[in-house]
Amino acid sequence: MTKQFHDNVLSDDALDQLFHEARSYNGWLDKPVSDEQIRAIYELMKMGPTSANMQPARIVWAKSAEAKQKLSDLASEGNKTKIETAPVVAIIGYDIDFHEHLPWLFPHTDAKSWFEGDEAGREQGAFRNSSLQGAYLMFAARALGLDCGPMSGFDNAAVDKAFFADQPRVRSNFICGIGYGDASTIFDRSPRPDFDRFNTIA
Amino acid sequence: MTKQFHDNVLSDDALDQLFHEARSYNGWLDKPVSDEQIRAIYELMKMGPTSANMQPARIVWAKSAEAKQKLSDLASEGNKTKIETAPVVAIIGYDIDFHEHLPWLFPHTDAKSWFEGDEAGREQGAFRNSSLQGAYLMFAARALGLDCGPMSGFDNAAVDKAFFADQPRVRSNFICGIGYGDASTIFDRSPRPDFDRFNTIA
């Protein structure tokens, strides 16, 4: 039986850690992130919902100096140092042929057949759902006491070739530095919209 | 000064509430969600990171029976009852012309100019970042003791016309039921991949 938490609001400290005080960092403390931490992030993020449990995200966690340099060489000027100095940078890609895995990921019906022959639909679904998974990754990292620095300024086609050459149906979505943020590298938080600016209750 | 939470792992209960025990519900208890709760979800979700703080999500929270019926009429067969019975359904759209707001959302530089004349790039950025924001919405709802049921099976163009007619540059992304999940309406959790299946540490 699923445990439910109806009307249980997380503690102020937990809300601060996940939302109010969490920031996107531009620089990092000189403190490594272990393989165990990377695996722990994935163990949490994979619990998040995706359409028909498609789980389209394919991730390369660039941790070695060589991998980060290779990624930095393909990134926009403003992202190079962020990449090189992050303890690890997750390259979040998505598999356009995710439907091949649905027989074991969504075993109670023939979901694979819903996606066959519709590559444009799969591309859109994989992009949407791998973006969701990228957000789950960030919340998982934050929940484990780590900080994030997401970035989308890089040459996607070149990154696909450099990091997903063995998975030719995978396309990069965005990348995310993970580590212990250096508070001296961030500015004041950018303004946030009032509810009524971008929301309607109908 | 930003508060940091380095190496502070959230409690097991909080991780259960957000990740391990959270489920996508197909049915709902007969218990309303208030406007105050909807606003509280947005107050949390808007803190999440978007590229250049673009905040492209535009949300219609369908709460009245009329609004839910209108949405249900445009949804796939399997989603109609889920929509009609949910206390509220968030219709998460994205503004292709989000860059018009960057002068106040990202005030320290001329970010608007980065996006001018590149509608395809804006569409991609708005789709990616509104998907991230949809994930933040779900984690915000869960953090407040609510449950979610995300769906993408509906006629996007018709929903745009029905709910964003006054915002012709907004496109629907996905929708999400929010309420108190009825545990009798869900099945066993679908399998989750082992780390080594879809991840590489480089």
From TrEMBL, chains A, B:
What is the enzyme's main class?
oxidoreductase
- Cell wall biogenesis/degradation in keyword set: no
The family note in this entry says: Belongs to the nitroreductase family. HadB/RutE subfamily.
> Residue limits of the Nitroreductase domain?
28-180
- This one is known as Putative NADH dehydrogenase/NAD(P)H nitroreductase ETX26_02950
Q: Which domain of life is it from?
A: Bacteria
Q: Which cofactor does it need?
A: FMN
**Keyword terms of this UniProt record:** Flavoprotein, FMN, NAD, NADP, Oxidoreductase
Q: Which organism does this sequence originate in? A: Pelagerythrobacter rhizovicinus
- What is the E.C. number? 1.-.-.-
PANTHER family, from UniProt? MALONIC SEMIALDEHYDE REDUCTASE RUTE-RELATED
The record's listing under InterPro entries reads: Nitroreductase (IPR029479), Nitroreductase-like (IPR000415), Nitroreductase_HadB/RutE (IPR050461), RutE-like (IPR023936)
Q: Does the keyword Flavoprotein apply?
A: yes
Give GO MF terms, alphabetically: oxidoreductase activity
